[in-house]
């Protein structure tokens, strides 16, 4: 099933950090922000799903967690596409047919 057809949005990467990663590591949010090299506010905004995971943050998270940036970016893209597919009106966009 594609992200656009799901009834529930894909999980924001901040929720994964908040609910799974940080508790498993046993680190405070302050210590995590310090290790990531970002402000506490930046991390808090991501954890509260108020800010997206940018490519720069995905690089940081990928190194920090040891799983690379693509996982974090793919989660953010899936989340964003789901929401945008409900906001963007495509009714007046016609598909181009190849010659």
Automatic annotation (TrEMBL):
<dbReference type="InterPro" id="IPR001387">
    <property type="entry name" value="Cro/C1-type_HTH"/>
</dbReference>
<dbReference type="GO" id="GO:0003677">
    <property type="term" value="F:DNA binding"/>
</dbReference>
<dbReference type="Pfam" id="PF01381">
    <property type="entry name" value="HTH_3"/>
</dbReference>
<dbReference type="InterPro" id="IPR010982">
    <property type="entry name" value="Lambda_DNA-bd_dom_sf"/>
</dbReference>
<dbReference type="InterPro" id="IPR013430">
    <property type="entry name" value="Toxin_antidote_HigA"/>
</dbReference>
<feature type="domain" description="HTH cro/C1-type">
    <location>
        <begin position="24"/>
        <end position="73"/>
    </location>
</feature>
<keyword id="KW-0238">DNA-binding</keyword>
<protein>
    <recommendedName>
        <fullName>HTH cro/C1-type domain-containing protein</fullName>
    </recommendedName>
</protein>
């Amino acid at each position: 099933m594609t992200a656009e057809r799901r009834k529930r949005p894909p999980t924001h990467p901040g929720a994964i950090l908040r609910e799974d990663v940080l508790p498993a590591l046993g680190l405070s949010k302050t210590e995590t922000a310090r290790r990531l090299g970002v402000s506490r506010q930046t991390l808090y905004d991501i954890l509260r799903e108020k800010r997206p995971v940018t490519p720069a943050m995905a690089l940081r998270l990928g190194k920090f967690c040891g799983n690379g940036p693509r996982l974090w970016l793919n989660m953010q893209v899936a989340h964003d596409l789901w929401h945008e597919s409900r906001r963007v009106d495509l009714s007046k966009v016609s598909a181009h047919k190849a010659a």
